[in-house]
Amino acid sequence: MMMPVDLETDAARLRGAMAGNLAARGFLDDAAWRAAVEAVPRHRFVPGFYLPSDECDGQGLTLWQPVTAALDHGRWLAAAYSDATLITQFDGDEPDWEDPAERYGGAPTSSSTLPSLALRMWADADVREGHTVLEIGTGTGYSTGLVCERLGSAGVTSIEVDPRRLEQAASALHDCGYTPTLAVADGLYGYWPEARFDRIVAACSFRAVPPALVAQARPGGKILLTLSGWLYGYARVLLTVDGDGTAEGRLLGGTVSFMSARTHAAPAFGNPAHWAAGLPGRSRVARHGPERIIAVTEETFHLRFLVQSAVPDAQLTTVGGVVHLVDVVSGSAATLTPDGDGDGGWRVREGGPIRLWESVERVLDVHDAAGRPGPETFTLCVHDGGQHLRHPRVPCLPLPSP
């Protein structure tokens, strides 16, 4: 679609300003990546998106306002060239951007990742000239455009599980002159027709490393992805693939999170009260309170990831001050309730084949005894026998089966 000259002029100016801001913050040390940011018109990849307002409904759900050029041209263009993630889809429902509606709440299922994170992913994966690249999660196509601008389109393959998302991304990419290989495919299985790849980079998260990705990387190739779980703990890992089909790499620091691959998303677990009703009446004093894994800190972010390796099928929610852990696979459940003595203690009730909170406490005990090591001290090993987190002072933690 042809754009007005004043729009393209304004967009170029805003791109330059965004590139300068990213460079000042240390995200554009490579001149070639800065040139890519200055060249790729992000606004063409986001004809519409949602921004949160300060308003909530009676249940505390955020009001999300649609933003398009027709509704508010200035707000749309400014947001397109901000270092922010722009939500483009909730709950798998594709909006009609010709007549978008406000909405309350919902789970984001597609977005345009904030530019600094997109650049950080490509840089952390050590993407260089001559590499063949598989990107998992095309989304709007903006990140795809950046790597095409940097490497050329011929070596770039990008896959997306949502055909409507890919159709819009393909249109934007081609309108901008980029011609990567695009396909509707589930990232869990990679994309065999274009394998093997020098670099595989995922813009979604997985519960464990998909074996197909290891098989589709060249010996010496690298895989950068985010691991997550149903407790919403995250860890990024950069794996190097060996010639024997194994892979190994350190966890990376930071608190980066991505939406789950749709086949790895947490299942609905029903009404927490129903689960709590089946628990035994007797409770015990908790050695650790739930704040250890729900507080908003970088350490907590890491701890949630370690904990969910021990209870991979558990989910957590809080209702009326009571914390519920629910495991839909085993049928186990636990509740944590303030003990009421004013000292901040908690009492636990749990039942089922797995003592969920007891398992959580064991991980916290070991982590404390080891000196509370951070993510960069853990190594992920992928081999025929499974996938394990290793640390010199912490017992091996297996990841759930992919």
UniProtKB/TrEMBL annotation:
InterPro entries reported for this sequence: Methyltr_grasp, PCMT, SAM-dependent_MTases_sf
Keyword Glycosyltransferase among record annotations: no
Gene symbol of the encoding locus: tgmC
GO biological process terms on file: methylation
EC number: 2.1.1.77
Region ranges (Disordered): 91-111
Record localization: Cytoplasm
Molecular function, one GO term: methyltransferase activity
Pfam family membership, one: PCMT
Official protein name in the record: Protein-L-isoaspartate O-methyltransferase
Keywords (A to Z) from UniProt: Cytoplasm, Methyltransferase, S-adenosyl-L-methionine, Transferase
